[in-house]
Design brief:
The complex is a heterodimer of chains A (305) and B (298). Chain A is mainly alpha-helical and 305 residues long. Chain A has 16 helices and no strands. Chain B is mainly α. Chain B has one domain: MetI-like (MetI-like fold, Orthogonal Bundle), CATH 1.10.3720.10. Helix content of chain B is 73%, strand content 0%. Chain B is built from 13 helices and no strands. Chain B is globular. The two termini of chain B are 40 Å apart. The chains are: A mainly alpha (305), B mainly alpha (298). Chain A: Residues 98-290 form the ABC transmembrane type-1 domain. Chain A: It is a multi-pass membrane protein. Chain A: It is found in: Cell membrane.
């Protein structure tokens, strides 16, 4: 836990300190800087192109100058993408998908975080004899391909009578993310000092009381990390929404893909790009607002276990 | 009484996770493996014909598209591995210069927050022959410029690889940066005192020290490649023809388009086997690292 609270201070400090040292700028530094700038451009340019395309009238797009700024800025494509984008025969815009994604996101966040934080806590701090074996199974489950469990999950969800609802999608997300989140929570909780927990067990001994009064208040950092991981995973998911969503409950990515990629009508590029941006905005906001937790989230999701 | 309760409560709390694991993962995997030996079509059947219990696998490996998919898996894995190489180079450069580290990291990492569907869509727009980069290049004097990769079966996979690298580059850079920062800083000054050149320092000392990070990256990349589905749908939808199908795409297609549960299950089982083959080194390496850490502590 100390390691986590120490990390944030470093990057900012390094960036400020070094120019102040006034060392001589070497040629190799300039070369490195130029190389990094070039790679950054490669990464940044697609976003730039999509943004300028989404603000151009269709007449300017047909000129084929994708890197030019719009001559006449217009927000028409954004309005159209939100209100009138067509999927199949219905032209209700991407807004329905946005609300569906929100409705999927919240239950899946609550469900997955509740179950995996409690499981992680029980496995980390209470003596459960089969904990190691169970953790190993979870470790494997965290990486199995979705296809191997897809069809049985469809059957289970259908037998629960919720197939095609936002609840089905949220439930499947909670199931799919449970192994990885449990491992993350467990690795975080096992670093809580034993003496603290032993004292608490002597004091009250109640499993739930210790969780609510000691463990949960210490979990601020890891909660943010897990939240970011889950928000981006659920919001950006396509396959689960496609498989378990009904006609009117599909998340934003599925509506975007259906209307832009698989439709056969004439492509309206500026509206498509605006729709793509609208879909990408929520996770991007999370990324730019909580950048350093984001990095922590994806790397802890990746290497711990 | 108190003691008994503290025995029961953790086990009670674990019940939901155990149920989810048993039904959602263990049971589901067993069910799919079982189905791959049956003749199930639209609806699951539970009778295994002992004479042709392997027939789904025979059909699968007689299927030309399945071989294309396996081949694409390999191409995609090798091609996207460039993201690891570049990720390491970028991390090393950022770590060395430190100037603008925050900015470069922010820029390089943002694609990770973007979904693969949007990524594919964005790159599809860049690859658009009449309005995208190709048109731009031709309009600026490069008459023979060809950037319409997605339209030809021979080059479409390269388009997908390019988009995958764009999406994953920052992720591998972040992992590498974390690995580099965990290296003891004394090594740098020791190497400088000994007059070891920068190139040799990286090749002979730093990279061997980071082999676990490299292994992790390689395994994560391979696991991601086995799952590659969204990016294919978004960029080519499998086309032109079936030239960009991946095993993940094949398995979903066998279920949703061909409505063939047995066949889809067989494809999924092969995917699982590939995943496990990739996964075993990670398990071994984790155990090895844990043992080394124990040894260092003791």
């Amino acid at each position: 836990m100390t390691a986590i609270s120490e990390v944030p201070a470093q990057p900012g400090r390094a960036a400020i300190l070094i120019p102040r040292r006034r060392r001589r700028i070497k040629g190799s530094s300039i070369a490195i800087f130029a190389f990094l700038t070039m790679v950054s451009l490669f990464v940044a340019i697609p976003l730039y192109v999509v943004i300028v395309t989404s603000f151009k009238p269709i007449g300017e797009i047909t000129l084929g100058q994708i890197f030019d700024l719009p001559v006449h800025w217009t927000i028409q494509p954004w309005m159209k993408a939100w209100n009138e984008l067509c999927t199949g025969l219905a032209c209700d815009g991407i807004k329905q998908g946005f609300f569906n994604s929100v409705m999927i996101l919240f239950p899946s966040l609550v469900l997955s975080i509740a179950i995996s934080s409690i499981t992680g806590y029980a496995l980390a701090l209470w003596n459960v004899r089969w904990a190691d074996g169970f953790l190993f199974v979870l470790f494997i489950c965290a990486f199995v391909p979705f296809q191997i469990i897809m069809i049985p999950l469809i059957i289970v969800v259908a037998s629960l009578g919720i197939f095609g609802t936002v609840w089905a999608i949220a439930l499947v997300h909670a199931v799919l993310s449970m192994p990885l989140l449990t491992l993350i929570f467990r690795n975080f909780y096992k670093d809580i000092p034993r003496e603290l927990i032993n004292a608490a067990i002597m004091d009250s001994g109640s499993f739930w009381k210790i969780f609510w009064e000691i463990v949960l208040p210490m979990s601020g950092n890891i909660m943010v990390v897990v939240l970011i991981l889950m928000i981006t995973t659920v919001w950006n998911d396509y396959l689960v929404g496609l498989t378990f969503g009904g006609i009117s409950t599909k998340p934003m990515t599925v509506i975007l893909a259906n209307s832009v990629i698989t439709s056969r009508g004439e492509a309206i590029y500026n509206v498509n790009m605006a729709a793509a941006l609208l879909t990408a905005v929520p996770p991007l906001v999370v990324y730019f607002a909580l950048g350093r937790f984001f990095v922590q989230g994806i790397t802890s999701g990746a290497i711990k276990g | 009484m108190m003691l008994r309760w503290s025995w029961a409560a953790p086990r009670l709390a674990l019940a939901p996770a155990v149920v989810v694991t048993l039904i959602g993962f263990v049971g589901s995997i067993a069910w799919t493996i079982y189905q791959s030996f049956t003749q199930s079509r639209r609806f699951p059947e539970y009778k295994i014909d002992s004479a042709r219990w392997l027939s789904q696998y025979e059909r699968l490996f007689a299927n030309e598209t399945w071989w294309t998919a396996l081949q694409n898996l390999l191409i995609l894995a090798i091609g996207s591995a460039l993201a690891i190489v570049f990720g390491f180079i970028l991390a090393a450069l950022i770590e060395r210069e430190k100037f603008g580290e925050g900015l470069f990291r922010t820029v390089l990492l943002y694609p990770l927050a973007v979904s693969l569907i949007v990524t594919g869509l964005v790159w599809r727009w860049m690859f658009n022959p009449s309005l995208g980069i190709e048109a731009f290049l031709r309009g600026h004097g490069f008459e023979n410029a060809s950037f319409n990769w997605l339209a030809a079966p021979q080059t479409a996979m390269y388009g997908i690889i390019l988009a995958s690298i764009w999406h994953g580059l920052g992720f591998y850079m972040a992992l590498m940066l974390a690995g580099l920062k965990s290296i003891n800083t004394e090594i740098w000054s020791a190497a400088r005192l000994d007059g070891v050149g920068v190139g040799r320092l990286y090749i002979e000392i730093i990279i061997p020290m980071m082999r676990f990070t490299f292994l992790t990256c390689a395994i994560l990349l391979s696991l991601g490649v086995v799952k590659a589905y969204d990016i294919v749908v978004a960029m080519t939808n499998g086309g032109p023809g079936t030239s960009t199908w991946t095993p993940a795409y094949f398995a979903i297609n066998a279920y949703s388009t061909r409505s063939n549960i047995g066949f889809a299950s067989a494809a999924a089982v092969i995917m699982l086997l590939i995943t496990l083959a990739i996964f075993l080194p990670l398990v071994a390496a984790t155990a090895w690292q844990a043992r080394r850490r124990e040894a260092a502590r003791g």
